[in-house]
What we know:
By secondary structure, this protein is an alpha/beta fold. Helices cover 33% and strands 16% of the residues.
Amino acid sequence: MAAIAVRALALTPKPRVACIEWVEPLMAAGNWMPQLVEMVGGVSLFGVAGTHSPWMSWEALRDANPDPDLIVVLPCGYDIAESQRNMAALSCQSDWPTLHAVRTAQVFIADGSAYFNRPGPRLVDSLEMLADILHPDTFDHGHEGVGWVGWPAD
């Protein structure tokens, strides 16, 4: 994990990341997620390291200033397929297409249940996945398609 962090922290720019732990009602990822985002050279826009995941409104995501460069959806207890089925809760919002991350195809769905939502050894895999998502030209740990996918699916 330290090797990834050292390599990622030297990279620029520092993408602004919204990690979504639940889509309806909307919840940002807290606990260890903001720290993982920071370790891979990102800036977590919602959630505070070491605190519980906060509920948030659609308006908070929509009106974030600065707007998220990336959105990573990793619902607690859901695998990728279940998360994809629940994306309508976000994508049906009339302002969804106006978000920078949506306009630039920087929305990702991750397997929250198997990786991101559980403290333990798989957080190493979670960190690798975030590194791959935030810095695809620098990292490729081979988790794409298994631990995370782009949204919408091709």
